[in-house]
Structures are given as structure tokens and as C-alpha cells.
Design brief:
294 residues; alpha+beta; Ubiquitin Conjugating Enzyme; Alpha-Beta Plaits; 2 domains; five-stranded mixed beta sheet; four-stranded antiparallel beta sheet; 9 strands; 36% helix
Length: 294
């Protein structure tokens, strides 16, 4: 299969999925620009194979009796050689532990490699997940005869705030991912693009760790967690309310502070300090830059 044939197969699959899942709540294309570039290439309006790869999410409700009310999010990012090579597919669901998720991914990919080699596979992936998700997701242990008396201490809920440092954040796709992933995971905070790049996310610990897991695997010159705050909630009542009260940021935003320099990629650090200080985070400035803010 040639490059243009692969691109045609990718576009045809997206158009089929769009017709099968007409609601944005069911099928959401994350990068419309990548889709537009793919269409231009297939239609011969450009000779260049798009560098951006289409990404989308299918939200699938489970209809088996033991998983009523459970929805899984099936994320897909095409690779250049798809369908000759499997795309990057991940399945996310609150009822899936990390171990269950790993097993599901391994078994699903093995099934797709055996049955969909050289062919588009997303409908097969969706059908496999609908048929097999109950083997990995434990929504109601009692209903499955798994209930037992436990003497273990209940897990401690933790509120987390991650302060992430990057050598730079220029790329528009990365910036878009950061905004979308923070929204998907219910996190608040901010992203300051430019050089250096700074990201703060706050919320439930599992959501913050999932955000970091997604971000760190992107291509970076340098990225690291500069500082981490973990606040146990077990001694406080009403866990969700406490998460809300501990937030320093009301939502997540991309924050720009008087961009300047030859490429407009440097920010006014004095304004950054004021921004942090107004939210009770002024002490973090010294952790990033080694000097006290003013």
C-alpha cells in the first residue's frame, strides 16, 4: 500500500466513523487541522504528506448488564503507515485500574494484529472492547461474587499539584494537547508557553499522574517535575468539596505575560511572579528560577 493509498484509507475510516457516531459526545476529532491537511493531500491539493497525525476519541457506552452506565473513551492517533501498522489506541475508563488497562491494551493489540493486519481497524477495536471490556472492568464486585470482608485500610484520597518545567514550549500541537488533557481530566492550573515553559496542574492525584504520563512521552528537549505538592484528604470530610477548596486556580488557561524577544517567546517574569503571588503560589518562583520574585 502506497502513501497516498494509506492516506485514503485513513480519511475513509474517519468519514465512516463520523457517519456512525454523528454526535460530538460520541466521536470527537481532536485536531481538525490535521484532518484538513490529510484531506488536502488525498484530494491532490498538496504534494506533501501531512506531518500532523489525525487524533480522535470515541466514547462508547457499555451495554452488558454488569457494566450498565459505564462509558469508555477509546483514543486513537494515526501513524504515518496506518493501516499497514496499527495506530496508537488507548482505552480509558474510571473503573479500569492501571493493571487492568495494561492487560486490556495488550490483549486488544494482539487481537488487532492477528485479524486486521493491513486493514483499517477502529470498528474492530470498538467491537472487541464492547465484547470484552467486562473481563477487565470490575464495576460491582459483589454482583460478580468477588465481595469479601476486607481489613485493609481504605486508600487515602490525595490532592496533588504538579509544577512542571520544560526547556521551552513552542509547538502548537503540544500546547493544544496540554489544554485538552487538563480539561479531560478535570484539572486546574495554567501553561506558560515560550522559553522556559511552565505548566501547573492541580486536582485528584490520579488525574495529575495521568496528565504527567501523557505529557512526558511527547518529544521534549527537556521536561521535568520541578516541584510536587501532595495533600492527604483522609482526615477531612467530603472529599470532592475539599479538592475544590484546595485549588489555587479556578480553571486551566494558557497564560501569556507580555511576550517579547525576537520570536516573542520570552515572558515578563515579573508579571509571572505577580500572577503566582495573587494565587498564593509566589514561593514557587524561587524554585523555578533560583531567585526571589518581586
Amino acid at each position: 500500500m502506497t502513501g497516498i493509498e494509506e492516506a485514503e484509507a485513513q480519511l475513509s475510516e474517519i468519514e465512516l466513523l463520523t457517519s456512525m457516531f454523528p454526535s460530538q459526545n460520541e466521536f470527537n476529532i481532536r485536531d481538525q487541522l490535521a484532518l484538513a491537511e490529510l484531506r488536502e493531500y488525498v484530494e491532490g491539493r498538496t504534494d506533501y504528506l501531512p506531518s500532523s497525525r489525525p487524533e480522535f476519541v470515541i466514547h462508547q457506552k457499555m451495554d452488558t448488564e454488569d457494566l450498565k452506565g459505564v462509558t469508555v473513551a477509546i483514543s486513537c492517533t494515526y501513524v504515518v503507515d496506518y493501516p499497514n501498522v496499527l495506530p496508537d489506541i488507548s482505552v480509558r475508563c474510571p473503573e479500569l485500574s492501571r493493571a487492568q488497562q495494561a492487560r486490556l491494551h495488550a490483549d486488544m493489540n494482539a487481537h488487532l494484529k492477528e485479524n486486521c493486519c493491513g486493514e483499517v481497524c477502529m470498528l474492530s477495536a470498538v467491537e472487541w472492547i464492547k465484547d470484552n471490556a467486562h473481563l477487565y472492568i470490575t464495576k460491582n464486585p459483589a454482583a460478580q461474587g468477588l465481595q469479601r470482608v476486607s481489613t485493609e485500610t481504605p486508600p487515602v484520597e490525595v490532592f496533588t499539584r504538579l509544577w512542571i518545567y520544560s526547556h521551552h514550549i513552542y509547538n502548537k500541537v503540544k500546547r493544544k494537547n496540554i489544554l485538552e488533557w487538563s480539561s479531560d481530566l478535570g484539572l486546574s492550573g495554567f501553561c506558560m508557553p515560550g522559553k522556559p515553559g511552565i505548566v501547573c496542574v492541580e486536582g485528584p492525584q490520579a488525574s495529575c499522574e495521568e496528565f504527567w504520563a501523557r505529557v512526558k512521552v511527547l518529544t521534549w528537549k527537556r521536561i521535568m517535575i520541578r516541584h510536587r505538592e501532595d495533600i492527604p484528604l483522609h482526615s477531612q470530610s467530603g472529599g470532592e468539596g475539599n479538592v475544590t477548596s484546595l485549588r489555587r486556580f479556578s480553571g486551566f488557561e494558557e497564560a501569556m505575560f507580555d511576550p517579547h524577544g525576537n520570536r516573542g517567546n520570552h515572558m515578563d517574569l515579573g508579571q509571572l511572579y505577580q500572577y503566582l503571588n495573587e494565587r498564593g503560589c509566589g514561593e514557587v518562583f524561587q524554585l523555578y528560577f533560583g531567585i526571589e520574585g518581586r
